[in-house]
Design brief:
By secondary structure, the protein is mainly β. The chain is built from one helix and 14 strands. The chain has a seven-stranded mixed beta sheet with strand order 5-3-1-14-7-11-10, with no helix packed on it. It has a four-stranded antiparallel beta sheet with strand order 2-6-12-9, with no helix packed on it. The protein has a three-stranded antiparallel beta sheet with strand order 4-13-8, with no helix packed on it.
């Protein structure tokens, strides 16, 4: 998809058991039998407890969960917005020094939407010379946008972010890559915001007064670079 936009000089019971014992009168010789019986009972209880402990076991099970995500066969990567830039009104550069002007406005980020295609993509840019209504041109003018801040439109996007580059434009119509996402990267919606402090237009002294504009062509290709 190709979009043409203009830049003008005018982005968890515990149980407690208690037992009751009975004491009865008995001949002295019977005491030995009672004591032996008590001792035997104690030994049996301990043995029973040990047996129960050693027979315990732990079991586990494994399960799975799944999710399916589909992308429409008609889905495409799209270039949603790109900036219109203005440098406002300035004095014509005709003194001893060349003119250098910073943008006063840039209305949109470069926004690319990828619905889930792993092809990778890139955005290329070119511009025409700055020309006025009379056909006069800003000779030697060079436009520099700077490197934009790239961020996903949502929080926590795990996809590899696209990489932005700073490519000066001199109006020759030469196409330059300004944003590129690798294969399986740049998924989701990504915005590249240009800072006004970095968008600059340099113009050599020796120009005719006028309202000059340049057409910027932003071209999206669904291939990595």
């Amino acid at each position: 998809m190709t979009r043409k936009l203009k830049v003008s000089l005018f982005s968890a019971l515990a149980v407690l058991g208690l037992g009751t014992g009975l004491l009865a009168a008995a001949p002295v010789y019977a005491a030995t039998t009672d004591t032996s019986s008590s001792s035997s009972s104690t030994t049996t209880t301990t043995s029973s407890s040990d047996s129960t402990s050693s027979s315990s076991a732990v079991t586990t099970q494994s399960t799975t969960t799944s999710a399916e995500f589909d992308t429409s066969p008609n889905a495409t990567i799209s270039l949603d917005t790109a900036p219109n830039i203005s440098f406002g009104k300035n004095v014509t550069p005709n003194g001893k020094t060349n003119g250098s002007y910073f943008a006063v406005s840039a209305d949109n980020p470069v926004e690319v939407s990828n619905p889930g295609l792993g092809s990778g993509w890139n955005v290329q840019l070119k511009n025409t010379p700055f020309t006025d209504a009379a056909g006069d041109t800003l000779g030697g003018a060079q436009l520099t946008l700077g490197t934009p801040e790239v961020a996903a439109a949502n929080t926590g996007n795990p996809s590899t972010a696209p990489v932005a580059t700073n490519s000066p434009l001199n109006g020759t119509g030469t196409t330059q890559i300004v944003l590129a996402a690798p294969t399986k990267g740049g998924l989701g919606i990504w915005d590249s915001e240009y800072s006004l402090a970095n968008v600059n237009l340099t113009v050599p002294a020796g120009q005719v007064s006028g309202i000059y504009s340049s057409t910027l062509t932003w071209q999206l290709s669904d291939t990595p670079q």
